[in-house]
Amino acid sequence: MATPWSSSTAYSPNAVVSYKGLDYIRSKYPPTATTGTAPNVETSVDPNNDTIRTWRLNTPLSDPSPLLKLYFRTAYPSLDSKGEPEFAYSGEQFLQMNAYDYDPLNPPEQYFGTSSEYDQYKNNESPTPDSPVCPANECGVAMQQGGEGTIYVTANPTSSGKTRYIYVTFNHPLYFRRTITVMTRITVRTINKNPPNGPPDPEVVTEDLTYTTYVPDDRNYCSESLSSDYFVPANAAFSIVVPNDVNNDDVKITYDFTGLAVVGVSAGD
Amino acid sequence: MSRIQPGSGYGFTSGGYGFTLNTADPFPDDGPATTIYLNPYLNGDKVGATPGTVNRYIPKIGTVYLDADTPPTITIEGAGHICVKATYEADKFFPRTATIVYEYGSTPPVDTNTESYYPLAKVNSVSGVYSMVKLSSGNLIVNRLKAGANIATWWWDVIQ
Question: Model ipTM?
Fold first, then answer.
């Protein structure tokens, strides 16, 4: 348990305190010890001279190492008759990371979220904006998953009243470029209470199947833990509404959501 | 010889002129933090999120950090999504800002080259009564990649 923060104590980088039920860790902004300002208020400036919180939350999982590692694979220029790339590749530019991880003398092995930009392939070194570039469809950057295992896609429902939200989960990032078809099943039980002749008819059970195509996008792309494994991929939700039951003098109809399954995934790329 | 044993939250300073006892923050809530992550909530017509991180940054609502003494909330007027919004700005650390926002409509806004929205919850409205369906919670990592003239791709990881 972290030591409670004290207004009379000077704290240096990497100090850990608790304050109002939250654990905080002292960042390197500023590098000198400070005192007197509560961790949820104190601010400093980052190397860009922008305001930054002096203390960051000491979250239970502050290291992304449990995640399956993601990386980018670039589509390199095609080779010419000599076996050499048709264009020089200018490579990655403009890598940004969060200020807390930034340390030019000791860069982290694994960034905690980044923004990176690539120029398209060109035959001059960057930055030369007017350089010829490859066709756009050869300049794509594909996300791939390190430690890739069996591709996995499934769907799970959760409910809110008569609405069922269907979550599509997959463990391969490229799945967000595919069309996933989910079959949902509503079981309909009908009893004709008042047939023209004789007693009520026996219950008739039918299955109402709906096929929904869903195209996840990159916003549906996240990681979640399942048992002890971390899956890379992702929740995409759509909803279906279970009809209201009917019960009158003539008929009784009940609708129950009874299942769903992923029945198709397009080939994608 | 008498001894003074200050309790949790009592600061004790001893010097040549005696001692002082600082009682400004007695018995603070210093228990282990067990739920430090972004978790959306709905309270009447107000929405918010518990304190957590996006790329180690603590998001704000408006100009107020989530862990402020008075947690900030958003007053809503219809159905929509509670989202985390990350922004990119050239020559700044990434993300430039991380905020909790409320976006009206049936779907969150589409990502652009400079903004991305990660939905934490969907809020429904029936006859002015709101209900919330949580879509996600946790501390987040956001990444952005832009290749050439293509639109930037954003993706998010949940680490808790």
Answer: 0.78
